[in-house]
């Protein structure tokens, strides 16, 4: 087996760079419904219910929740060291964007169309939001 | 982004570090959404919460000398003076409320502590450009008044209040306000509560598109408030149209800005019923009733007062409202009626605050799915039903499913 590196373009929303393991959520994320002590999603009926997003590169469609709780959820996760390392979204909204910028968490959108089909949970990726690139390591 | 000379001066720090921080954040937001420039705002509403992130951010801006050019109204925290008569308040929680209050006063906010500013103290006109945060407020000002605001976060709204401008994108642009899907409502819509369910179920049916509701007749302010709050909680939809009701939707054609209606869905009574059973905790005994997410209007409080007049509540009942509404309730005698029955009207307070610790682990009744959504984090459980049913439940200390009762009595008749 050898490690292949594949690069994808994306669009910077909140600058910074980080590496981590991909975790894909098909459901929108409300960071307030994540336990700050463990990073575990506590929202019933969520596809990540019971799983920890701590230290992951979180790939999700969009944020949800009120104009307050997204920032506070993210802040508490960050303070406890349980925040995701970077975030990749399809539909950014003002609340998610402002929260990520203020909390200095890398956030990108507008990924290449092949990105979503080319990744799976557990892939190691490097997100360079500042320069608009994502590098995926995959075994072949 | 193309900035004016003054905006560039703000960004360069010529108006102080606090203004510079606010402008930096706004430019980053503008760039994220490809906004070409900034536009002036005339009003702002900040969803103050005295949660850690809120306090951290406002104190940071205050320490950098920021001051609001546009004085924003603010969301509730909790009324520690009033809550202390009901329960014991942790010293650290009281301290954080006072610190938040001091910081927001210093930055120049108007301390309204109300999540329904659009009904009383911060009411916009059509086409005014605003920076409103608070999930019930943004849909109301956009949809009901035809003013223009993005779904600001508490922090981005505060930045806009400081700089007096906001990036030009999203719902500020005419073309982004057009309806995207026609929603034919084939349900009776008898009560304001039906609008809660409609607001919650719609994003599940249509995703995050701007809905154009058809067949809704004379919704009350509370109904419109409920619809918007739930649309924006169940999804991220800060704008809707109602044909013949909201200003940008005189006709279906107007709501779609002359474009062809490409998609239509129907929402039936069965959809609302299913949503209701998904949202509510199981019926049975309840230990308290909590209303006011968003803050109850005078009309809603009158419904409660009429139901509890000369009665004794079996379980504690709490109503959260604005200070002006609370005052009016006192002048009208509703407050005295509710207090005599064993209930309370609490001003300036949100349900998502640590002053409600004495209810944690208990099961209550409410009329607001939004209330129940956020309290999952605080280990509270809610039966969700119409305001009238919820008040009746508080009088009895229990609530049973009417449909279930009907089927039981029918089988007994057989």
From TrEMBL, chain A:
The keyword Lyase applies. One of its GO terms (molecular function) is lyase activity. It comes from the Bacteria. Residues 32-108 form the Phosphomevalonate dehydratase small subunit-like domain. Keywords: Lyase. This is Phosphomevalonate dehydratase small subunit-like domain-containing protein. It comes from Agrilactobacillus composti DSM 18527 = JCM 14202.
From TrEMBL, chain B:
Keywords: Iron, Lyase. InterPro entries: PMDh-L-like_dom. Residues 1-391 form the Phosphomevalonate dehydratase large subunit-like domain. The keyword Zinc does not apply. GO terms for molecular function: lyase activity. Pfam families: AcnX. This is Phosphomevalonate dehydratase large subunit-like domain-containing protein. It comes from Agrilactobacillus composti DSM 18527 = JCM 14202.
